[in-house]
Amino acid sequence: MTMNAPRPNLAALFFLAALGTQLGAHTAAQDSGGATPSVTEVFARSLGAMKPIDDYRGEFVKRERIEDELKTEKMSFKFARPFKVYLKYIDPNPGQEVLYVRGTNKNRIKAHKGSFPDITVNLSPYGRQAMKDSHQPIMTFGVERQIRIMANIHRKAVESGVETYTVSDGGVLFGEPVWKIETRLPSSGRTVIAKDDENLWELATRVGQDMYVILHHNDDIDSPKDIDEGDPVFVPDHYASRFEYLIGKKNYMPLKETSWDHKGRIYEQYEYPKLDLSPGLTDKDFDPDNDEYDF
């Protein structure tokens, strides 16, 4: 089945454009210890800070609830525009490497597991093997993408009239003072009927909700292909019922994000313990023939 490209969300684009116009508002006052910024200002400054950054590297810790288990993965990474990602796992599966460069390798992931039998394979980003123990395909990786997701979740809450976001001092994380953004959202949703020859990825695109969020809240659906025409599918109105973001005060990078599902359990948690902006990565850093890699 051919994947449909997501349709542009004009409301979201206008919202993000409005965020950009607020970049720098009250910056001098805030840097000198002035008033706490609004949620919109924090996201605007985050997006503005990312605009001139073409590459970065660091460590990434991912915790995602897969069925009833919260699984943790730690990896080092490299990222460069327009979209190049290299991952090397630290724990579990030390030595496992993943490489994805949009527009090359037939837009497939190149990967090997780093242990015997160690075979390099090319995978569809949406395939079962590539998506194993992951909520999102690799094309959603990156700091800017994460900021835009946070901003869009906020936009939808505002449009729904349930916006209850707060910003406060979050103390220090990874040696940097942070802002803490918190919110709780209703656990509401609606039932959608699956169309003919439609998988869950396509249904998610049609209704404007994340695929794994839908999968997580439908216990009778085992995989994105496990729906048939006429099946009722519960679609949550919001990505999660509670969020907490910790955003660096110095450079407005998202250092930690936690979300809880509608049962009050941690659903996702992402951390950047190390983040090196604009280190000057080159094509060699995303070349599978790099002598430092084991593809």
Report on this structure.
With 295 residues, the chain is of the alpha+beta class. The protein folds into two domains: 10-186 and 239-286, Lipoprotein localisation LolA/LolB/LppX (outer membrane lipoprotein receptor (LolB), chain A), CATH 2.50.20; 189-236, Roll (Membrane-bound Lytic Murein Transglycosylase D, Chain A), CATH 3.10.350. Helices cover 21% and strands 33% of the residues. The strands form two sheets. The protein has an eleven-stranded antiparallel sheet with strand order 6-5-4-3-2-1-13-12-11-8-7, with helices on one face. Strands 9-10 form a two-stranded antiparallel ribbon. Strand 7 and strand 8 (176-184) form a beta hairpin. Helix 3 (39-50) runs antiparallel to helix 4 (143-160). Residues 1-33 have low confidence and may be disordered.
Explain briefly what this protein structure is.
The protein has 295 residues and is of the alpha+beta class. The protein is built from six helices and 13 strands.
